[in-house]
């Protein structure tokens, strides 16, 4: 938990004590936030390592409660899952993402977005259909959206995860295996799922230039992606040495504080423009 807190503090630039105060989150507040749609989406750029241009963004949920405290997603996502609210939360975040995408499109920026889907939401009846309907209604082509699903989410309820994922993939959405390396999937299991992207967990990226065993894991993860013929993305890139190593290992994309922090939707285009200069 303390690890989650410090990473959240870094991601939001909110002092840690202020977040700690907010640990007392309650269900009533979460329900209210959902009704008022006050959980926001921030976007963290992902950089293409061959061109160093923005390849897309990851949408990350941000909740500032009524006391003005930031509650980390590592706390409120599990709470929403526990109380059957994750489906509603996911769809509310998706609506915001689609609106933001439309705003960017109107300004000529076609930015692919990756959204996280939690383990429990994968098992929700009809989630895939609800997602598909909303995307069609907003007129965004499916291939501009990727769903990130953690390796561990797959084992929660394999048949329904496989059904939801396959349905989304058939419609043309991208599917990313998130936090790759932290679960226990074998090559054989992976090949059963129609993944289009492999996202390597931060724990193998951070510190890899100095540690041989991490470097070996990193290399084998990237090689797995290459063998599966899918895009490889490394998360949590914090140093130039890590970036350099990823490039030399043939990783396709990188994401992390070195490159960009998660930003509110209205700041993203400005950031991209400045980065291109
Ligand atoms: P994740 O999917 O692995 O997301 C990456 C997390 O790493 C984000 O934390 C991001 O802010 C943080 N991060 C990015 N770059 C760096 C870096 O260079 N160093 C470090 N230390 N951290 C970095 P965040 O936003 O607190 O999200 C935590 C987790 O909460 C996410 O992990 C994801 O599993 C979950 N989550 C966030 N938003 C959503 C959502 O909308 N829906 C669902 N279901 N889960 C979400
Ligand atoms: Ca993710
Ligand atoms: Ca991840
Ligand atoms: Ca991770």
Extract low-pLDDT stretches.
Answer: none
Biggest beta sheet attributes: 8 strands, mixed, barrel
- The radius of gyration over CA amounts to 18 Å
Helix content: 40-55%
Mean pLDDT: 90
Oligomer: single chain
The number of helical segments is 14
Instruction: Give the strand order, joined by hyphens, for the main sheet.
Output: 1-2-4-5-6-7-8-9
Sheet-strand content, in percent, reads: 15-25%
For the secondary structure, the number of strands is 10
- Give the terminus-to-terminus CA distance: 39 Å
* Overall body shape: globular
Structural class from helices and strands? Answer: alpha/beta
List bound small molecules: ligand C2E, calcium ion
List the secondary-structure elements in sequence, H or E.
Answer: HHHEEEHHEHHEHHEHEHHEHEEH
Question: Could you explain the architecture of this structure?
Answer:
- It is built from 14 helices and ten strands.
- Helix 5 packs parallel to helix 7 (127-138).
- The protein is 50% helix and 19% strand.
- It has 277 residues and is α/β, with parallel strands linked by helices.
- Strands 1-2-4-5-6-7-8-9 form an eight-stranded mixed barrel, surrounded by four helices.
- The protein is globular.
- Strand 6, helix 10 and strand 7 form a beta-alpha-beta unit.
- Bound molecules: ligand C2E and calcium ion (3 copies).
- Ligand C2E is lined by residues 7-8, 10-11, 44, 60-61, 72-74, 77, 93, 116-118, 148, 178-179, 202, 235-238, 255-257, 262.
- This is Response regulator.
- GO terms for molecular function: cyclic-guanylate-specific phosphodiesterase activity.
- It comes from Cellvibrio mixtus.
């Amino acid at each position: 938990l303390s690890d989650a807190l410090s990473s959240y503090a870094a991601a939001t630039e909110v002092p840690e004590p202020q977040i700690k105060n907010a640990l007392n989150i309650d269900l009533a507040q979460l329900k209210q936030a959902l009704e008022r749609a006050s959980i926001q989406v921030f976007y963290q750029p992902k950089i293409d390592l061959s061109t160093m241009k923005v390849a897309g963004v990851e949408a990350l949920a941000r909740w500032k409660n009524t006391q003005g405290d930031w509650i980390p997603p590592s706390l409120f996502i599990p709470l929403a899952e526990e109380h059957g609210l994750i489906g509603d939360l996911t769809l509310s975040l998706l609506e915001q993402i689609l609106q933001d995408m439309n705003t960017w499109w109107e300004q000529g920026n076609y930015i692919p977005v990756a959204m996280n889907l939690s383990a429990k939401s994968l098992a929700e009846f009809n989630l895939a259909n609800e997602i598909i309907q909303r995307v069609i209604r907003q007129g965004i082509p499916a291939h501009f959206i990727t769903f990130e699903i953690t390796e561990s989410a797959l084992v929660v309820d394999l048949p329904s995860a496989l059904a939801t994922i396959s349905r989304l993939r058939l419609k043309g959405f991208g599917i990313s295996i998130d936090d790759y390396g932290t679960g226990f999937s074998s090559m054989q299991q992976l090949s059963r799922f129609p993944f289009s992207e492999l996202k390597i967990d931060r724990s193998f990226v951070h510190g890899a230039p100095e540690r041989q065993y991490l470097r070996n894991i990193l290399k084998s993860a990237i090689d797995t992606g290459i063998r599966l013929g899918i895009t490889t993305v490394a998360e949590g890139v914090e140093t130039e040495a890590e970036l350099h190593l990823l490039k030399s290992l043939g990783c396709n994309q990188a994401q992390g504080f070195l490159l960009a922090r998660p930003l509110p939707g209205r700041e993203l285009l400005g950031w991209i423009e400045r980065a291109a200069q």
